[in-house]
Amino acid sequence: MNDESKHPDTDNEAEANRPLEINGVRIEATFAEAFDMKATRVIITAMDEIWAEHAASAMSGFGTSVIDCKLEIDIERRLLPSETPDGRPGIALLAFAMSGGDLEKQITRRAGQCVLTCPTTALFAGLTDEVPRDKRIALGKTLRFFGDGNQISKVIDGTRFWRIPVMDGEFICQHDAPRVSGIGGGNFLLVARDLHAASRAARAAIGAIDPIPDVITPFPGGVTRSGSKVGSKYKSLIASTNDAYCPTLRGITDSQLGDGENAVLEVVLDGLSYDAIAEAMRTGIRAACSSCGEHGLVAVTAGNYGGKLGRHHFHLHEILS
């Protein structure tokens, strides 16, 4: 893995600190700090794209941040019938949590309430990794009990599936899904002269990131305006507003915003590998700069905590070189 654990901060220091601009947009000599997570991919299929979309939207709802949702989950990509286990239209979702226990609890609950309930759907594992039994997430293994004793299992090519009777026929569900290591908290901040420019830059970035596999941007539209810092003056909160980038607090806090920098939006990324997140950041930043460098995007920076939060560091100058 080409991550910071193999490339200490002291390496390439001169390279990382050199001035860098893309289409007139200043790229700050800083890094995004990300941390280890547990991850899985599931595939929802249905009779048509509409039912698959309903189930995927429901399952990924309230899945923006582990701070309070306990799960970060989003649609990775839409699948053609030729790409799914049962030859029907499908959607792949990626999910990330801070622990294997949180991941299993959230996936099982969401599968039961959002996929089992949706007409015509089926649910499959989206990863083929060979992992020990205690690192697999229960899908049909748990949901089968809804069949009240009328459920039937079948093993096909070494994989167990469950047929659970429901009112439109049967809900087909794979027995379990692999749980693997992932990375959460990749990020970059788009600093603009006004909100219109920041919004346009963010949409260009997300549009470019969307086709990239193995990565998701779980916030609404892929973007958040409520970037956070660790801790708060209130003991009950583990995170609070990133006051250094709030334009209304300039003058009363240690602001990082200069003159003419009046709006900031943040793109947060989770991925199955360092390389997937680095490619998404590189593609998104370049798209934002190309689209808005002459239309109000002033700078791109990133959020970190001095290297104390996570071991994966994405240096902007390094990944954009």
TrEMBL record:
<comment type="function">
    <text>Catalyzes the transfer of a formyl group from 5-formyl tetrahydromethanopterin (5-formyl-H(4)MPT) to methanofuran (MFR) to produce formylmethanofuran (formyl-MFR) and tetrahydromethanopterin (H(4)MPT).</text>
</comment>
<protein>
    <recommendedName>
        <fullName>Formylmethanofuran--tetrahydromethanopterin formyltransferase</fullName>
        <ecNumber>2.3.1.101</ecNumber>
    </recommendedName>
</protein>
<keyword id="KW-0554">One-carbon metabolism</keyword>
<dbReference type="InterPro" id="IPR014053">
    <property type="entry name" value="ForMFR_H4MPT_ForTrfase"/>
</dbReference>
<dbReference type="GO" id="GO:0006730">
    <property type="term" value="P:one-carbon metabolic process"/>
</dbReference>
<feature type="domain" description="Formylmethanofuran: tetrahydromethanopterin formyltransferase Ftr C-terminal">
    <location>
        <begin position="169"/>
        <end position="319"/>
    </location>
</feature>
<keyword id="KW-0012">Acyltransferase</keyword>
<dbReference type="GO" id="GO:0030270">
    <property type="term" value="F:formylmethanofuran-tetrahydromethanopterin N-formyltransferase activity"/>
</dbReference>
<dbReference type="InterPro" id="IPR023447">
    <property type="entry name" value="ForMFR_H4MPT_ForTrfase_fd-like"/>
</dbReference>
<keyword id="KW-0808">Transferase</keyword>
<keyword id="KW-0963">Cytoplasm</keyword>
<feature type="domain" description="Formylmethanofuran: tetrahydromethanopterin formyltransferase Ftr N-terminal">
    <location>
        <begin position="20"/>
        <end position="166"/>
    </location>
</feature>
<dbReference type="InterPro" id="IPR022667">
    <property type="entry name" value="ForMFR_H4MPT_ForTrfase_N"/>
</dbReference>
<keyword id="KW-0378">Hydrolase</keyword>
<dbReference type="InterPro" id="IPR002770">
    <property type="entry name" value="ForMFR_H4MPT_ForTrfase_C"/>
</dbReference>
<dbReference type="GO" id="GO:0046294">
    <property type="term" value="P:formaldehyde catabolic process"/>
</dbReference>
<comment type="pathway">
    <text>One-carbon metabolism; formaldehyde degradation; formate from formaldehyde (H(4)MPT route): step 4/5.</text>
</comment>
<dbReference type="GO" id="GO:0016787">
    <property type="term" value="F:hydrolase activity"/>
</dbReference>
<dbReference type="GO" id="GO:0005737">
    <property type="term" value="C:cytoplasm"/>
</dbReference>
<comment type="similarity">
    <text>Belongs to the FTR family.</text>
</comment>
<dbReference type="Pfam" id="PF02741">
    <property type="entry name" value="FTR_C"/>
</dbReference>
<comment type="subunit">
    <text>Homotetramer.</text>
</comment>
<dbReference type="Pfam" id="PF01913">
    <property type="entry name" value="FTR"/>
</dbReference>
